[in-house]
Structures are given as structure tokens and as C-alpha cells.
Amino acid sequence: MTVTDVLQQIEVAQSLDIEGITLIGGEPFAHAGPLSDLAQQVRKRGLSVMIFSGFTLTQLQKNTDVAVAALLDQTDLLVDGPYDRTQPDNTRRWIGSRNQQIHFLTDRYSPEDACWSQRDTLEVRWDGKNLLVNGFPAGDATDLWRRPGESS
User: Fold this and answer.
1) Fewest beta carbons within 10 Å, which of 23, 81, 94, 121?
2) pLDDT digits (tens, 9 = 90+) for 77-88
3) What residues contact 68, with CB distance under 8 A and at least 6 apart?
4) Residue 133 in domain
């Protein structure tokens, strides 16, 4: 998809009262050029940009690629560090593992806001045909939608 195609979809989504966009894996900074263009256009529309990166903020700041710096400059929230499944974290909203940190790169959000100290949540949606799950459910939570007789 082109940046223009994605922006058109974002404009449609704005009618649903979205707050912003989140850029996640692969690795957003591996595509920093077009994503910095997208992020700039998104922020011009009054939306926020949150990025999950396997790189740390320090690594990104030391990167000499101007596109990486441009994308970082358009980022409101950065969750940095690789996801580590051996360090699960459900005590911080949207953060997957304890080694990851959230960085407030603009003043759009405040680290003192109570939402950052809320536990992670699980969103489950049923569209009549498909069960959609967002978040990291506790291991026993998946038993809730397993068919009788189905094993783990």
C-alpha cells in the first residue's frame, strides 16, 4: 500500500473517533522513510502516533539514518525494546514484557495520567462468525472459548 492509500483508510477511520495510529511489527524503523511521511500526515490531522520498536530509544537516537530521526521526531509515544516472552508484563497497559519501556516524546500525553498505571486489558470481539482477541490473555483465559473436548 502507498502512504496515500493508508491515509485514505485513516481518514475513514477518523469518523469512528480514533485517537491516533500505532505502528508495530515487523520493525517500524526498518521502513522509516515512508512511515515518517505517514506519521507527519497523521499528526497534521490531529492524531497521535505510537510506535512499538525492538530497538531501544538510545539505539534509535544514535542511528545516523535521517529517516529514523524523522520518524522518531513524529512519534508521541515509543515503547522500546524487544518483546521477551519470558518476561510477561500485564501490569502496564499495552506493554508486553518487563524489559520494555514507554517514552513520552511529546507533551501530548503525560506519564502521570492514570491510564498508564492501569493493568493491561483484553479485548474480545465476536462478529457473528469470528472471535477476535486483542491483548495478551492469561493462559487460562483461552480456556473460556475452547470447545468442549478440545485440548490445549
Assistant:
1) 121
2) 999 999 998 998
3) 29, 32, 60
4) no
